[in-house]
Amino acid sequence: MRFLTALVAAAAVLPSGLVSAAPQEAAATGAVQIEAPEPADDVAIGGPELAEGLEIEAPELADDAEIPAAELEGDDAADTAELQAYESVVKADGYYGSTLRQMEQRYKRYVRRTLRRRGNRGTCNSRNVIVRKDWGRMRRRERKAYQDAVRCLYKKGPPLSPPSVVPGARNRLDDFVAAHLIESQDIHFNGYLYSWHRHFVHLYDQALRNECGYRGPSPYWDFTRHSRDPRKSPVFDGGRFSMGGNGKSIPHGATVLKAFTLDLPLPPGTGGGCVETGPFTDLVVNLGLDPTFVDAENQSTAAAVEAAVAADVSAPAVVPAGQAVEAPIPRNETGRNEGALEYNPRCLTRDINLGWSASSTRLDVEYLMQCPNVECLERRADSWDMPGAETGYGRFVRLGLPQVHPAGHFSIGGLQNDPFASPGDPVFFLLHTMIDRIWTMWQAQDPSVRNDQVGGTKTPMNTPPSDQVSKNDIISFPNIGSDIQLGDTLSALDGPYCYRYA
Q1: What average pLDDT does the segment 10-26 reach?
Q2: How far apart are CA 142 and CA 241, in angstroms?
Q3: pLDDT at res. 401
Q4: How many whole angstroms separate alpha carbon 477 and alpha carbon 180?
Q5: Dihedral sign for Cα atoms in the order 196, 197, 202, 203
Q6: What are all long-range contacts of 96-103, with beta carbons under 8 Å and residues at least 24 apart?
Q7: Which of 300, 312, 269, 302 is CA-nearest to residue 417?
Q8: What pLDDT shows up at residue 313?
Q9: Would you say the C-alpha torsion 290, 294, 296, 302 has a positive or negative sign?
Q10: How many other C-beta atoms can be found within 10 angstroms of the C-beta atom of residue 434?
Q11: What is the pTM of this model?
């Protein structure tokens, strides 16, 4: 009931005009059959004993021997307890027996068949495929090894970006932030969204492995698991084996965003200050512009933040009316943000927003996965194909709609409210690995067609009107990787890629 009240309140404080298109799950009657969890992943993939139609997930490659030894608190019993607690969340969400579960199983059968046919041949096969794994299902030593690699990257210098282009860069993580800043106007709300970010995450993963010695699974954040409150997720619980906690709870107003034809306030969440727990409290964000907030002294705003901290599910604060504010990320025609590449050191901030996280549930992902083509997949992920949104994305944003891409960012808030400098928070890469997982699973529902499919226009929200993207189009990654053709990014098991999702 509190959840519904929150969404009603959210609709009251944001612009009207859209009715929620989020799919509704029918109420179950009688007993519900819950499937047992899949077996542990402890033997190599492949082999003739894997039956063609088998529903059980193919076991992962054994990673234990490859992960560097580390001094860790806890033991196997602690791992088991955490995995059991996580599994209870998965069951409570109704995942087993869901449409999404069926789609994931179809994806895994496709991967098994593909790798079995290849045997040990080719550049991507069962012996070298990298596993991408839900952070909540990683062991403690796996998470610790990943944290260490991330810390290595943001402490590693000098950056590869030339000072004449990116004067604010101080380390290798800054190189990735700068590439995203430079290319941002050309890679969002258009036909390049999925492909560009797939390759971007791949380059980051390769940097962790080649420069910082990481050899474990590549993690993703399954935001559907704790969509009611991400603070309870093992990604954000602030513990030693998390990706850091929420930002310190401080009274603050809405963050004002103006980019990609957007012009909207992002309501305050439950934090707003510096991240003070977890492994990345010493991370310095060097690039990007400072956010602009609506008056933080407004009492209704401060009270709303306090209420959000205490609530299970919160409504956004009312933005004070009639107050002119300057957008923190002004749009310009050069393709990048003036001043955003200058040196601007500050702490990492987060502002977990429970209203936004409610727009990234399992049902929202299932709705997204029903798309018949990749252009629909992009539009629906960002929710700009919704009824009433035809007058521009700036009028689209409503809590309660399925909009898993922006909701993923805005539910974290803080630096993630800046769509350009957001890779400065390492959790960005777990989020976009999850977005890539959705695309990869969607492709596997009809691989002969979708592994060869591009779609969408070249400009954000087709403003100004532009041509459709082509497989021959070139996408760029300044100072972190070579240019690549769009058509070479379409399969996770071919070209430069060799990874699968557990």
Answers
A1: 32
A2: 9
A3: 58
A4: 8
A5: positive
A6: 96/34, 96/35, 96/36, 96/37, 97/32, 97/33, 97/34, 97/35, 98/362, 98/366, 99/366, 99/369, 100/224, 100/362, 100/365, 100/366, 100/369, 101/35, 103/366, 103/369, 103/441, 103/442, 103/445
A7: 269
A8: 35
A9: negative
A10: 24
A11: 0.79
For residue 409, what are the CA distances in angstroms to 276, 346, 417? 20, 19, 7
CA distance 404 to 393: 15
Cβ atoms within 10 Å, residue 40: 9
Structure tokens at 165: 């282009």
7 versus 117: the higher-pLDDT residue is: 117
Mean local confidence (pLDDT), 416-431: 96
Closest CA to 354 of 167, 226, 480, 218: 226
In the predicted model, is pLDDT for residue 458 greater than 80? Answer: yes
Give the residue ranges of DSSP H helices in 330-426.
354-357, 362-369, 374-382, 404-412
Residue type at position 323:
Q
**What is the three-state SS of 146-168?**
HHHHHHHHHHCCCCCCCCCCCCC
Distance of CA 343 to the CA centre of its chain: 26
pLDDT tier for residue 20 given thresholds of 50, 70 and 90: very low
pLDDT value at position 306? Answer: 53
Q: Does residue 383 register a pLDDT over 90? A: no
CA dist., res. 86 & res. 80, Å (int)? 10
CA angle 179, 500, 449 (to 5 degrees): 85
Q: Is the pLDDT of residue 65 over 80?
A: no
Amino acid in position 411: S
Contact yes or no for 427/387 (Cβ under 8 A): no
User: DSSP for 297-353?
Assistant: T-HHHHHHHHHHHH-SS-PPPPPPTT-----SS---TTSS-TTTTS---EE-B----
Tell me how far apart the alpha carbons of residues 331 and 334 are, in angstroms, rounded to a whole number. 9
CA separation for the pair 222, 218 (Å, rounded): 13
Strands (E) located in 91-217: 130-134
CB 287 within 8 A of CB 344: yes
- Closest CA relative to residue 263, chosen from 196, 324, 176, 187: 324
Pairing of strands 130-134, 218-220: parallel
Nearby residues of 173 by Cβ (< 8 Å), 6 or more positions away: 153, 154, 423, 424, 426
Q: Give the pLDDT score at 262.
A: 65
pLDDT value, residue 215? 97
Q: Tell me the one-letter amino acid at 478.
A: P
- Average pLDDT of the chain is 78
* Residue owning tokens 């499919």: 453
Question: Do β-strands 247-249 and 272-275 pair in parallel, antiparallel, or remain unpaired?
Answer: antiparallel
d(CA 457, CA 43): 43
Residues 186-219 pLDDT 10s: 999 999 999 999 999 999 999 999 999 999 999 9
**How high is the pLDDT of residue 9?**
34
pLDDT at position 265 is 75
